[in-house]
Amino acid sequence: MSAIAINPVHRVVRFYEAPIGKKAIMALTGVILFGYVVAHLLGNLQIFGDPDQINKYAAFLHNPANAGLLWVARSALLLAVGLHILASLQLWKLKNDARPVAYVKKDDAAATYASRTMMWSGPIVAAFVIFHVLHLTVGAVVPLQEIAPNEPNVRANVIAGFSNPLISGFYILAIVLLCTHLYHGLWSMFQSLGFSHPRYTPKLKKGAAIFAILIAIGNCSIPIAVMAGLVK
Amino acid sequence: MRITLHIWRQRNANDAGKMVRYELPNVNHEMSFLEMLDVLNEDLIAKNEEPVAFDHDCREGICGMCGCMVNGMAHGPLPGTTLCQLHMRHFKDGDELYLEPWRAKAFPVVKDLVVDRTAFDRIIAAGGYISVATGSAPDGNAVMVPKEDAERSMDAAACIGCGACVAMCPNAAAALFTGAKIAHLGLLPQGQPERQQRAIAMVAQAKQELFGSCTNMGLCEAVCPKEIKLEVIARMNGDFIRASLSGR
Predict the structure, then answer these.
(1) What pTM, to 2 d.p., does this model score?
(2) Do B173 and A197 lie within an 8 Å CB cutoff?
(3) Which residue pairs, CB below 8 angstroms and at least 24 apart, start in A154-161?
(4) Is CATH 1.10.8 the right assignment for the domain spanning A11-227?
């Protein structure tokens, strides 16, 4: 007979109460958000296509026939963001409670810059996302142009937005932080979900770095192209 | 060689504590780090001052008793080494060293550099063992263990429970320690019957002891005197998630 005793609480409660459970939630919601970042980037890169290509894509997304699907996707993303932030705040509190007295001297150089700054890059990116939605989805920053109802003139709005160096600057900063966040998150999610192998984990880390850099280049190319006058 | 030490002095658990500066003008480079502290203490006793309290036992790097932060690194700057096995030849003449106790809510300071690590004992008591019927010893080769599993289990079992992983972790997480114990038993056939309960019980106990949560930074791995790998944490995560999903 086993002598190991387990607290008889509901398995869902026990799972989420454990830091490992919260990390698993952060990993799974992270996958969803990462998928969105990639999909969003692929959509955005259409600005380099025919002048009306990205507007056609936007009209397709905003087509009233797709409204149900659009809101399902938005709700899923909002839920993922909400859970990701909730778990991170709870883990952050745990971290602060776990070491009430700080070191006089502490050398964290052995950890990557990205891993040390997750709690900085995360909130800054979140603030940027709110601004970004207000700017280009809601139109609360500058009035947005429309070709017709439910057909936003995305091309004109993007060019108008990124012609402002402050908006472009904030965008580029947020993308760089997003990508450092992604670099640590992308390989770390495997570890959080229980996968680590001396043969594959180093490759995963390299792959995460390459992916993060590609995403940064792809995203930053848009404001840079607008400011350089390559996209008119 | 001349060494300047800044040491955390704290009379007892309730004392506020502070850093105190000590000058050691004649440190022999062949001394171990703890021998240097012994010399300092001899000096302090001769001057009728309270010697610096620090934990130590075997001084062979195998018992897990010693350890403190040296310039922000658990067990000092040499990788894969306990504080007792660190020698002064690894430092330079004129070096200034900050010695601080392991800092964690779960490791309250007892005195100076000594902390109470019984939280680790309670994590072990929660599930860091196997249940076996007593009686005559089983036949040595009755249970086959694949060579690679035996090696990996042994690597995890090298953990001496010194607490450097917790001390170094910015989250004060006990993930490397708990992971090492779970991997050590879970890699062997004898550990299988209680593998799920063990993961759940030990993880829950670590949380109850107010250790933090792992964020996969790898600082624990960098300072572990037994060079336990981050892989054991992934294994613990996997065991815990699997037990939560598939346990009946």
Answers:
(1) 0.94
(2) no
(3) A154/A47, A154/A54, A154/A55, A154/A57, A154/A58, A155/A47, A155/A51, A155/A52, A155/A54, A155/A55, A158/A47, A158/A54, A158/A222, A158/A226, A158/A231, A159/A226, A159/A231, A159/A232, A161/A135, A161/A136
(4) no
